[in-house]
Amino acid sequence: MAEQQFESSVKLIPYSQDLVYAKLSDLTNLSVIKERINDPMFDTAVAGKVPQDKLEQIKERVKDMTFDRDSITTNVPPMGELSLRIIEREEPKCIKFEAVNSPIPANLWIQLLPVTETQCKMKLTVRAELNMFIKAMVSKPLKEGVEKLADMLAMIPYGA
Question: Mapping DSSP to helix (H, G, I), strand (E, B) and coil, where does residue 63 land?
Answer without folding.
Answer: helix
